[in-house]
Write a structure and sequence with these properties.
Strand content: 15-25%
Number of strands: 31
Distance between the termini: 29 Å
Structural class: alpha/beta
CATH architecture of the largest domain: Alpha-Beta Barrel
CATH topology of the largest domain: TIM Barrel
Amino acid sequence: MGNKLYHGAAWYPELWEPAVLEQDIEQMKQAGINVVRIGEFAWSAMEPTEGAISLDFFVNVIQQLSASGIETVMCTPTPTPPIWFTHGHPERMYVNEQMQVMGHGSRQHACTNNAVFREKAAIITEAIAKAIGPLASVIGWQIDNEFKAHVAECRCQTCLHLWHEWLAERYGTVDKLNEAWGADIWSERYLSFDQVPQPNPAPFLHNSSLSTMYQLFSYEKIAEFCDEQAKIIRKYSDAPITHNSSVAFHVDNERLFRDLDFASFDTYATWDNYPNYLLNNDLWRNFKQGRDFWIMETSPSHAASLESYAKPHPNGYLRAEAVAAYALGAEAFCYWLWRQQRAGCEQPHGSVLSTWGKPTVGFANVLEVAEARAAIEPAMLSTRPRQAEVAMTYSDRAKAFLKTEPHQKLNHRALVTDFYERILHTGLHRDVLPEGSSLDGYKLLLTPFLPHISAEFLERAIAFVERGGVWVVGPLSGGRTEEHTLHTDAALGRLEQLAGAETVYTFPMDGTGSIGRAFGAAEPLSLWSAVFAPQDGAVAVGTVEGGLTPGLAFLTEKTHGQGKIVLLGAMPAGEQLLSALIVHYADEAGVTVRTDVTKGTIVAPRTGEDGDVWVVVNMDGAGGRVTLPAAGRDAVTGEAVAAGVLKVARYAYKVIRFEK
């Protein structure tokens, strides 16, 4: 891609007449838009009847954009198969968990595993790649759109057959499956793989292994479809390929991005949920390490559909979002959408222009982003995000376990965001790491909400500890096997032996009156919890007061090699105790990449050949401050900045360069 920061929007030229397209392109230039994304829902415009494919319109549009200095990300249109594909073919359609067959008229209505769908998707993708791949202004590709955003695991007959194949490959024999799943429970034992059902409607809950494995099967199959599409595109284009995903969708993002060239995500977090927005940036930076990510979709004002809407951003917030993203490693900040849709189910959605071509309530904020992008671009291009010394583990596979076993309707995204927010407000610079990431360079590793800790992850984490790292593991971590069953040797399996703590009980702490005390703080304990009896040199750092298990530990630590393993058995229900825990172990681990920035404001540290850069952004609209460790220079204005307290106003930002 080009040596620039991108400011873009999704555009649907197939929906508008030529005069509107000319007006759009002219106004894009005025708004500082330098890239657009097209084609993702346009299959029927490209192939109105089966086999009658024409891409001339899109080639011409891309050339029009290029003539105005606007580059293009081209999409494959596979989320919306045309009526000629779907009409009269229920066998090709997605089937939900209630066994309802989807019909034509929305999106993601076809089963992406269906052989006919794969064939037709390959044909249209190859035609697009042939026609558009040679165009120099096509700087990237997006495959499909938001995999599994509106649907989850399909239950059609195609998927049933593939499920049986997947099980046979995974287990080898049905006896091994029965043993792994404990299938003698409730007479579930199977005599052959083709008897294993999908987790369809049943009188009560399915076996946990069946439910979780079916999710992992679905994760793998959608990633395989993405890989197929990418392979076709690469025959005709060298431009990098991505997919626009989210932590909210039913995918394994780590697997999905494994064979793609760069990572991108869509976010519609409201202004008062800015920690969720920042979490995505800190995570997507690490799916393709060393390669900048894209925010492919966010609203200039608000998200909406025919049946709902979100609160609009306050003036100034959009600029804060954009600067924070660029500072944390984004190459692009893009909107959904450019011109408001006049029809369909998302007519009320926030856009840059209205259907009648006038600025919307978010337009002035888009202009602010364009100005900020130009102002910070030199500093961003001459530096890279600095690796943090604190890492938090993230796993979509864990999300599958919690979907199967949500206890009291636990939501993986909410749990992870809440924990992340505690780290964020300490001023520690942090990376959110996919489960398979390297741990090199980190000093403190936090692993919450990982029900199954794989043998491979455990080995890497232990090696990290032996080198001097501090690993805080829990809560809700380590208590399940790979097959989503309970350990039979110890509650947390091998982790218990390594951590030197015997789990005495596991039970739900909520409502029991259990109070956890550690680091001078005391708070109620919550969630499904473990309490420990330290042994083999481990010590109790946090103990339970009251409730069912007074005197037992909910927090233990043990020296291992040059580092330390810390078990957190329960989730503190307040803010003070967990924050104190994080700061305590950051201090013990010797974490230096940190600031005293006030809550609601962030510091994104970057580094380059000419020195370090801090990008300070206020996210909560209350303004903030941070102490600069040395004198520097404002990279935007060129003015000298003294060491000491630096203040930033409501939704404002500062870019401070520290000379070597």
